[in-house]
Amino acid sequence: MRMERNLGMDLVRATEAAALRSGRWMGRGDKIGADKAAVDAMRFSLDSVPMNGVVVIGEGEKDEAPMLFHGERVGNGDGPELDVAVDPVEGTTLLAEGMPGAIAVVAVGERNSFYNWQGLAYMDKLAVGERARGVVDINAPVAYNIRAVARTLNKQVEDVTVVVLDRPRHKDLIRQIRETGARIKLILHGDVSAGIMTAIENPPADILMGIGGAPEAVITACALKCLGGEIQCKVWPRNDEERQHAVDMQIDLEQIYTTKDLAQGENIYIAATGITPGEFLRGVEYFGGGARTHSVVMRSRSGTIRYIDATHRWDKLMRISNMPYG
């Protein structure tokens, strides 16, 4: 039998390019400039991937940034019909302010694989790794889920770490977590990385809880499908206008969306590269004439997880690419 081509190895070139180009904007206070550098590099690289891709999760749809826009066709046109979800910089504020945890990420799956967030930009989320899959319930009390994860992981509740976006809307959630005695890891941005961190080897967090971006939930689901973890989500309207939009779109606000709902394909690929140093991936390290990157490539069908340490030399890269790296 002929082994299928692993598109993840093509996708990682796109996340590497986005990280290499945007990493130079670290700490410069310019989110738009950093985002544009990543978008331009990712678009350039994706156009060489052997696929007929359509962007269904576009980086700029929620925050009006430079974008790989919804409906844009990517790939060289010679390959399978695929849905594409991109976030050229997940954590633009982290990158602009020189803080840890920014990554470049892209996921692909069979056509009509990915949940359409339909203009409702936020979801309430609960994510865990493989060992805790099946023991949590987003409708259950916070304390129930923390204790269930503690039992499954053979931990004391006081040793469980819950990662939460540091937002005013999470004041009550944080209070409830503290009442259980569990540890809390507050993050400023980057809940894709936070969700993935619950499922990697030696995870720095055990549970992701709280409200974050709906597009990010889809990308997180892609990764957790590869890693064996689980995400549960519910649509979270921010105001009366969004509630009415949900009514008009016949969206049930009580419906629970699972990993399989958000990422329905059976052959999903995801690649991510660190931009600034983080607990999930190391950041870009520049040296004279080049740089080093740290990436991960995942595939759901095979369950293969590859970490890639790469060295890039500007003189050689620019002989085969029109992208001005050096």
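Next protein, fold it too.
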Amino acid sequence: MDIPEKMVTAFIGPSGCGKSTFLRTLNRMNDLIDNVSIEGEVYIDNTNIYDKNIDVVNLRKKVGMIFQKSNPFAKSVYDNIAFGPRINGISHKNILDEIVERSLKQAAIWDEVKDRIIPLCI
């Protein structure tokens, strides 16, 4: 399938038909889901994005997605919020804790989730 540059391309279909799953192949977000089997090749700018030498962080900077509904990773609330800072080199737990707390307060859900925040990936 060729998708032309600088053109709007829409994927339309009923709920559950694979639109989001397909789009997640384009920035390798399916790699983050446990027990997912990935086969084949996907080329973006004449490069197989599933080549072992691809920098996935740079790919995800190039191929972003925005969904109508939130699409969190199958991880904790903490790890969903800390994902962005982590891939940008922030690994100190105190800094990540501050970012997570500030983000949840800005989203007005800190009080609702603060007692259930557990980082899974440290």
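About the second fold: Strands lie at 43-44, 47-48.
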